Amino acid sequence: QLQLQESGPGLVKASETLSLTCTVSGGSISSTSYYWGWIRQPPGEGLQWIGSMYYTGSTYYNPSLKSRVTISVDTSKNQFSLKLSSVTAADTAVYYCVRHRYFDWLLNYWGQGTLVTVSS
Amino acid sequence: EIVLTQSPGTLSLSPGERATLSCRASQSVSSSYLAWYQQKPGQAPRLLIYGASSRATGIPDRFSGSGSGTDFTLTISRLEPEDFAVYYCQQYGNSPWTFGQGTKVEIK
Fold this sequence. Notes:
The complex is a heterodimer.
Chain A: E1 3-7, E2 11-13, E3 18-25, E4 34-41, E5 48-53, E6 59-61, E7 69-74, E8 79-84, E9 93-101, E10 107-110, E11 114-119
Parallel strand pairs in A: 2-11
Antiparallel strand pairs in A: 1-3, 3-8, 4-5, 4-9, 5-6, 7-8, 9-10, 9-11
Chain B: E1 4-7, E2 10-13, E3 19-25, E4 34-39, E5 46-50, E6 54-55, E7 63-68, E8 71-76, E9 86-91, E10 98-99, E11 103-107
Parallel strand pairs in B: 2-11
Antiparallel strand pairs in B: 1-3, 3-8, 4-5, 4-9, 5-6, 7-8, 9-10, 9-11
C-alpha cells in the first residue's frame, strides 16, 4: 500500500524558507510511471499546484511560484523535498505531497497533508 | 493558465436527492483531461472521476462525470450521508494544472 508522508516544521517565520520532505513508502520514487509533486491549500480555500518532479531530477513549477520554489529528490532515501523561499502569511497552508501518472499527469495519490503556518 | 469556475458555490440537498455540479473552463481542456475530487474536513482530496467520465477505483456508480471542451458536470445520482463534502474539478491537460474553487454539497 503506497503511503506519502509529509514532514517538516509546522511554523516558519516570515521572510524565511519553508522546507518540507515527503517520504514515499510502499512504492519506489524511481518508478518510470510517475511524477511526484506538491499542492497546497490555504485554510478554508481552494487548491494550488506548486510544482512536480521526475525521479531523474527534471522539475516543473507553477509560474506563479517559480521564482521561490525548489523541488528536489533523494532516490536513496525514497524522498523528495520542497523549499519555498521568502515566505509571507499568504503561504500559510496545508501542504500535500502527491503522485501524478507519467503519461497524462493525473493526480492519483495524495499524502495526508501538513499545516505550515507563517508567523510574523 | 486555464481558469476553472465551479457552480453553484453551495448546493443544499437532502439524502436521496440528485446533485448536479458544474465546472466551466476558460479554454478547452485538452483530451478531456478533467478530474473531480471529493474532500471532507481534515482529509486530503480523493479522486472520483478522471478523463471527464471515468470512475476511479472503488468509486460507487452513483458518481458520474460528463462533458468535454469547456463544460463538465459531476452528477451524484442519489446522495448518501457520506457524500456531503466539498467537490473540486481539476484540469491536467495544460500546465499549470489548475483547480476550480469548489462546490460544497451540504445537508438541507
